[in-house]
Write a structure and sequence with these properties.
The protein is an alpha+beta fold. About 35% of the residues lie in helices and about 20% in strands. It has 4 helices and 5 strands; from the N terminus they run αβββααββα.
Length: about 120
């Protein structure tokens, strides 16, 4: 909705093709807006940890981010000297492939959104 409104405002009275691509919001399927890269690290160790059920996933999310934030997280990435670890739900009980892509983007480009 916000994206549609912003694009409508930007396009009002404009000739098609005159809006720079950088001004158009890039929103993923999960609803997050890609603001800008914090860094670019395409050559690193990436590890994926799958959680077999909701209880184990929530426990790790709450341990990592605190109770309020941990309850709404769908996946997360954590950086260390060894590389980046992605924590997601096992697709056997929660098939969310867009979350894997989102967290991989964090490993490669950093914190590109504010929430």
């Amino acid at each position: 909705m916000v994206r549609l409104l912003l694009i409508s405002i930007l396009l009002s009275g404009c000739v098609a093709g005159t809006i720079p691509a950088a001004m158009i919001p890039r929103v993923g399927i999960e609803g997050y807006w890609f603001h800008e890269k914090e860094f670019s690290n395409l050559d690193q160790n990436i590890r994926v940890v799958l959680f077999e059920n909701e209880a184990k996933f929530r426990a790790m999310a709450i341990k990592t981010f605190g109770s309020a934030q941990g309850r709404k997280i769908r996946g997360f990435a954590v950086w260390s000297e060894e590389g980046c670890t992605i924590y997601i739900k096992d697709p056997e009980w929660a098939y969310e492939p867009e979350v894997l892509g989102h967290e991989l983007a964090h490993c490669l480009w950093g914190k590109f959104h504010t929430e």
